[in-house]
Amino acid sequence: MPNWYYDKKDLRNTPSARDGVDYETERRYRKEGARFIMEAGASMSLGHNTVATGVVYFHRFYMFHSFRTFPRFVTASCCLFLAGKVEETPKKCKDIIKTARGLLSDEKFQSFGDDPKEEVMTLERILLQTIKFDLQVEHPYSFLVKYAKCLKGDSAKLQKMVQMAWNFVNDSLSTTVSIQWEPEIIAVALIYLASKLSKFTVVDWIGKKSEHLKWWDMFVQDVTMEILEEICHQVLDLYQPTQAESAPPKIPAMQGIGG
């Protein structure tokens, strides 16, 4: 199977970077594409897994292609179209294009050309080859729920903390964490962040053993605080005023963690 995880050096030496797109512009394009997928998915009532799969395809695609060659909103539409089929929540291409038309300005929609449907359908073949037909993507959501069920403490505070972590996972799609670390590690990092911010200290958990220094030692091996904090910082950076053009869009709410 392909290795879909990249380090910081790779992220600064992408096809777009080699094509003259500076690092901050590429980050903005990735964020705009991801948020477009989230907004289009929400307006078409697609679930969080379909949206997240589309976003991961998008981030992977641009590790092989330049934003100058492939316009981001066309690619984003194509990624959502393919993700819908893979996650068994298919939407017609023309409906995705209609949604895009409603969400994008005239100027941005021009990138779809004279025949938007043909543009997206043609790109789908390139997308499939680029992601090497590796279509199944795991996301932090399922791990977040699994881990949360093992944590002990006041149930109302725990639920509040887990909802915050879920929102952070949604927001993390606008960053590159999904192509830097495994979903298990992202889930741990964002529970850690939410527990800090909601002042919910995890002191006990189901399956606790004497060798476990932290609750996550039960689930992931050799994860340093440096890695967890790097993930947290990427998500928190989304809230900085310089980047806060708009609040991250909402994705369908988390299902209850009980049972």
Automatic annotation (TrEMBL):
Entries under InterPro entries matching the protein: Cyclin-like_dom, Cyclin-like_sf, Cyclin/Ssn8, Cyclin_N
Keyword annotations of the record: Cell cycle, Cell division, Cyclin, Mitosis, Nucleus, Transcription, Transcription regulation
A biological process term (GO) from this entry: regulation of transcription by RNA polymerase II
Cellular localization per UniProt: Nucleus
GO MF annotation terms: cyclin-dependent protein serine/threonine kinase regulator activity
One GO cellular component term noted in the UniProt record for this chain: nucleus
Signal peptide: none
Entry's transmembrane regions: none
Domain Cyclin-like: 35-129, 142-229
Keyword Cell membrane applies: no
CDD domains associated with the record: CYCLIN_CCNK_rpt1, CYCLIN_CCNK_rpt2
Function: Regulatory subunit of cyclin-dependent kinases that mediates activation of target kinases. Plays a role in transcriptional regulation via its role in regulating the phosphorylation of the C-terminal domain (CTD) of the large subunit of RNA polymerase II (POLR2A).
Record family assignment: Belongs to the cyclin family.
Protein name (Swiss-Prot/TrEMBL): Cyclin-K
Organism for this UniProt entry: Anopheles stephensi
Lineage: Eukaryota, Metazoa, Ecdysozoa, Arthropoda, Hexapoda
